[in-house]
Amino acid sequence: MTVHDDHRVRAGWAPFLQAGRRVVLRYAIDRERSPHGETMTDALGTILEADERTVRVMTRRGQVRVPRALVIAAKEVPPPPVRRQGPTAP
Predict the structure, then answer these.
(1) Phi and psi of 68, rounded to 5°?
(2) What DSSP line would sit under 5-53, residue for residue?
(3) Short-list 44, 20, 40, CA closest to 30
């Protein structure tokens, strides 16, 4: 997959992509490198750093660096739900 940085530059697109925000990003991946031939994947987590070229997201599996030119969709999401504790043993 060839990335042309100027191809998908959109001024003002997704201004909420800022450090500390929890987001889900859908982005393009190389079909030949993916295990099942997928063309897209998601990253759900908190943004560590974002600039005009990349967005770094801390997910449950670790850090993901996503080239901004490959982001297809982005959405700010609420904090994860709080886990309820089960009944305590007597």
Answers:
(1) -60, -30
(2) TTTT--TT--TT--TT-EEEEEEE--TTTSTT--SEEEEEEEEEEE-SS
(3) 40
- Do the Cβ atoms of 16 and 23 come closer than 8 Å? yes
Give every CB contact of residue 60 below 8 A, 6+ residues apart in sequence.
Answer: 44, 45
| pLDDT bracket for residue 81 (50, 70, 90) | confident
Judge whether 46 and 22 are in contact, CB under 8 Å. Answer: yes
Predicted TM-score of the model (pTM)? 0.75
